[in-house]
């Protein structure tokens, strides 16, 4: 079955750029989206169709997808960005999530 | 504004059944596909099932196929998840979510607050 792999954790200093990867076989042939989840809260969609931002999501969050890897990039990382991030791909009959990455802003 | 409210969770013994509901408001419910997802304590997100806007198409994760049934009542703007033969590994917070777009592309732009299902003897 299809699998998406994320690093368990990523650390970044405030103001720096954080990159969270999501890998899967020929992932670039699929659309990928990303969710942010803070403790005790429901997930929030931050990127869809690889690189589109829903309304209300700041421009410093961006996405890309090519080859076997999709990447969520957070520029000028702030303390409020500390959260778990999940990538997700889909087929008409199923949805796959990555295992999640805990972003720590040190 | 869009609101999704789950209900029906609780503690249940292994092998028993439970029905979850998801009441929607703030959007035209009958235009969107909707999903159930779950998150076991301390774990990641897992998709459970999807139902199309008109209820004609339904798909399930392998882990629940044959045990869970998704349905919807567009006249009540409500989606359901009938869970039978529950197992301890079904213990999770169950979320309902709607598709971002009216076409069948699965991005979940609105989520409920979740309802906890605990399967334990």
Task: From the structure above, extract its key features.
heterodimer; A: mainly beta; 3-stranded antiparallel sheet; globular; B: 121 residues; mainly beta; 7-stranded mixed sheet; 0% helix; 50% strand
Describe this structure in words.
The complex is a heterodimer of chains A (106) and B (121). Helix content of chain A is 0%, strand content 47%. By secondary structure, chain A is mainly beta. In chain A, strands 1, 3, 4, 7, 8 and 9 form a six-stranded mixed β-sheet that branches. Chain A has a three-stranded antiparallel β-sheet with strand order 2-6-5, with no helix packed on it. Chain B has 121 residues and is mainly beta. In chain B, strands 2, 4, 5, 6, 9, 10 and 11 form a seven-stranded mixed β-sheet that branches. Chain B has a four-stranded antiparallel β-sheet with strand order 1-3-8-7, with no helix packed on it. Chain A binds chain B through residues 1, 31, 33, 35, 37, 42-45, 48-49, 54, 86, 88, 90, 92-100, and chain B through 35, 37, 44-47, 50, 59, 61-62, 95, 100, 104-109, 111-114.
Give helix and strand order of chain A, one letter per element, not per position: EEEEEEEEE
- Average residue pLDDT of chain A: 96
Mean pLDDT of chain B: 97
In percent, how much strand structure appears in the residues of chain B? over 45%
Taken in chain order, the helices and strands of chain B follow as EEEEEEEEEEE
SS strand fraction of chain A: over 45%
Shape of chain A: globular
Portion of residues within helices of chain A: under 10%
Helix content of chain B: under 10%
Q: Stretches of chain B where pLDDT falls below 50 for ≥5 residues? A: none
Q: Report the sheet with the most strands of chain B, covering strand number, pairing sense and barrel closure.
A: 7 strands, mixed
Structural class of chain B: mainly beta
Query: What is the strand tally of chain B?
Result: 11
């Amino acid at each position: 079955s299809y699998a998406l792999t994320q690093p368990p954790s990523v650390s970044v200093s405030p103001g720096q750029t954080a990159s969270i990867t999501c890998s899967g076989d020929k992932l670039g042939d699929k659309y990928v989206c990303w969710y942010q989840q803070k403790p005790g809260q429901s997930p929030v969609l931050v990127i869809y169709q690889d690189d589109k931002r829903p309304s209300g999501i700041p421009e410093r969050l961006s996405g890309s997808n090519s080859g076997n890897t999709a990447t969520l990039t957070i520029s000028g990382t702030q303390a409020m960005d500390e959260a778990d991030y999940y990538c997700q791909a889909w087929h008409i009959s199923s949805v796959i999530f990555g295992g999640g990455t805990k972003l720590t802003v040190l | 504004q869009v609101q999704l409210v789950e209900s029906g969770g609780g503690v249940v013994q292994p092998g028993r059944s439970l029905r979850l509901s998801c009441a929607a408001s703030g959007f035209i419910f009958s235009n969107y596909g909707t999903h159930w997802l779950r998150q076991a304590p301390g774990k990641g997100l897992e998709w459970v099932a999807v139902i199309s806007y008109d209820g004609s198409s339904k798909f399930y994760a392998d882990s629940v196929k044959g045990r869970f049934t998704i349905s919807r009542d567009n006249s009540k703007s409500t989606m359901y998840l009938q869970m039978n033969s529950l197992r301890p590994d079904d213990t999770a917070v169950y979320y309902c979510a709607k598709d971002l777009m009216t076409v069948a592309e699965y991005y979940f732009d609105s989520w409920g607050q979740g309802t906890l299902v605990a399967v334990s003897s």
